[in-house]
Specification:
mainly beta; 1 helix; globular
Amino acid sequence: MHIQLNGNPLSIDNILTIQDLLDDLNLSGRLAVEVNHQIVPRSLFQSHILNSGDIIEIVHAIGGG
């Protein structure tokens, strides 16, 4: 399946959900994920199914002052 991740094309296999993608990329912590210009709540990461052609943006939230 082909997606666009943070502006770059990416081919992925055996990834069904946002959580699968995050696990495959070894990403964790405070993340914001947008799929096709819609923010996906963290509570839906495990159930939101990805589709070929999806445009995904992942942002790591960093606190500070």
